[in-house]
Inverse folding.
């Protein structure tokens, strides 16, 4: 009888080889949608976001890589007026209308106990959870690093499904944690307003750092 893990590894190599042979690169439209023309938005049309679109967004975002496949991001979609009322007091004054105007605001959080899922998410190392079980610093560093990466994948996936996004870190994390995550191992990271933008509310594009100033080859 063949070992199912070995068969799965072989199938994955075949699929990766066939995919690589296509030599794909993103076309200009895709780059514009995700990066070059996409903007951060602050105002929103009175147009709802379908629940199905949020699921589609997550199904794309979840494929982004994390260390040991640890996937610490957790998301709360704040949609109801009640939930928005609970979120509002934690926000800087200037950020409140941006959140209130958006049909959905995602609280991008991370779970400090992400390692409890490692036996399922990282079966190649059955002892992976032990690295974090008694090491709160390692758990915090890995949860924050990978949860933040996943937050970035989340924003790009939102653009990929046709949503506009506006991220916000101008809020009191402790207040959000108390209101939404009290008594849990979840911590808030940043917020993402989601919807269809009112483009009259954006500002001019701000400069990006030059390759020469940022990158070096050694
Ligand atoms: C993690 C994160 C936090 C941000 N926090 C805020 C915020 O609290 N309030 C705000 O108005 N904009 C906030 N922004 C928006 C940034 O200023 C904006 O994305 C940046 O200037 C680039 O704008 P552009 O995408 O239109 O080029 C945030 C963006 C990110 C990614």
């Amino acid at each position: 009888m063949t070992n199912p893990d070995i068969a799965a590894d072989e199938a994955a190599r075949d699929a990766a080889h066939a995919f690589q042979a296509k030599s794909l690169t993103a076309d200009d439209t895709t780059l514009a949608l995700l990066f070059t023309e996409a903007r951060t938005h602050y105002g929103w049309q009175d147009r709802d976001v379908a629940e199905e679109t949020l699921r589609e967004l997550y199904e794309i975002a979840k494929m982004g890589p994390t260390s040991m496949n640890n996937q610490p991001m957790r998301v709360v979609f704040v949609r109801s007026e009640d939930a928005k009322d609970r979120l509002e007091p934690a926000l800087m004054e200037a950020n409140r209308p941006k959140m209130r105007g958006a049909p959905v605001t995602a609280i991008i959080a991370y779970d400090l106990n992400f390692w409890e899922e490692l036996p399922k998410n990282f079966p190649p190392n059955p002892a992976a959870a032990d690295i974090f079980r008694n090491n709160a610093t390692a758990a915090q560093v890995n949860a924050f690093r990978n949860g933040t990466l996943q937050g970035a994948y989340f924003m790009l996936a939102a653009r990929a499904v046709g949503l506009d996004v506006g991220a916000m870190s101008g809020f009191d994390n402790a207040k959000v944690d108390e209101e939404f995550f009290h008594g849990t191992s979840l911590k808030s990271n940043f917020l993402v307003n989601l919807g269809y933008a009112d483009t009259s509310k954006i500002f001019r594009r701000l400069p990006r750092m030059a390759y020469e100033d940022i990158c070096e080859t050694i």
Observations:
- The longest strand covers residues 186-195.
- Residues 39-40, 95, 167-170, 190, 205-206 surround flavin mononucleotide (CB under 6 Å).
